Input
Amino acid sequence: MIGRVPRWLFVVGIVIVASGCDNVSWGGFDLTLEGPATDTLTAMQDTAQAEAVPDPAVSLGRLLYAGVRSGNRARVVPLAEITAEGLRPLPGGAEGDELNTQILQERLRPGGEMTLFHQGVRVGTLVLDEADIVSDIYCQPRAQASGYLLLLPDAAGAERFLALEPGRGGQHPFGSYRELSSVYDQRVASLNLGAEAIPLVRATWPPSLLDIRQDLQILDLPGGEAPAVLATFVHRDRLQVGPAPDDAYALMILGEPRGTRFDLAYTWYRPVGAAGKGVPRYFSRMDWDGDGQDEIVLEVMGAESRWFAALDRGPEGWQTIYQDPCGTPGAQGGGG
Output
């Protein structure tokens, strides 16, 4: 490809006159100046216009990744783009296919690294050695990379991670990590909060709240008086991908400590008959927007696949700030 074409093309013709086999004399030369051909000008204009169009890769900013462990390895997929306005969903369809290819080529190359976070703390590095596109796990195809884990000893048992590309998103020093287990008062509080939420959302009372509590997490959130509780209750269904009857529902509660009790800070309620299946469970958390408090990522199980959602605490309390478009009611599943 020619980077620059001269404004004028010089065409030089030299005329040689031969008077004999051994005698050569100059007959002079003719010099003409010709402008570039019309086709050449058109090509130059097309090239300039093409170079003026921004490369789509330039608009792709910071990506938040979700990672799952398998032995001494883990795989990561892009969850969403981090912007000043919040998380931006990755496109689907043909545009999503192009973006997945771009991510594989530019962000998830073998030999690259990902910075891993668990429970809000930087805990290690993932060294990538494989990459492809997966289409049978999430509700839209996603680029995926896998590699070997390098973890802090205290986080050796971590199973799920959030991840950023090194150099994108500021400095994240290693922190002090500790694994939390529930105590009796927290387990009781989760059941009390579930009982408080059921009439608020007008859900059907189950025979036993304890029997339908399928996930319980203890979160040491920044700024909290003590660890919070996050529990998922699933009525007439399971916390897994698969079909569910119309009278099934998912209920998730977040309770924050206030002195000797817990306050109901957030409720996710999704009845299958009205909104489609969408069973959330805690995935991980970190402060990806730099506001000093952790945002929470949820993994949501639908009838045929899974997707991601996110919670954040704002001026009016905890709210759903993000959900993959394919997980909204009427698409494949969602929350509120």
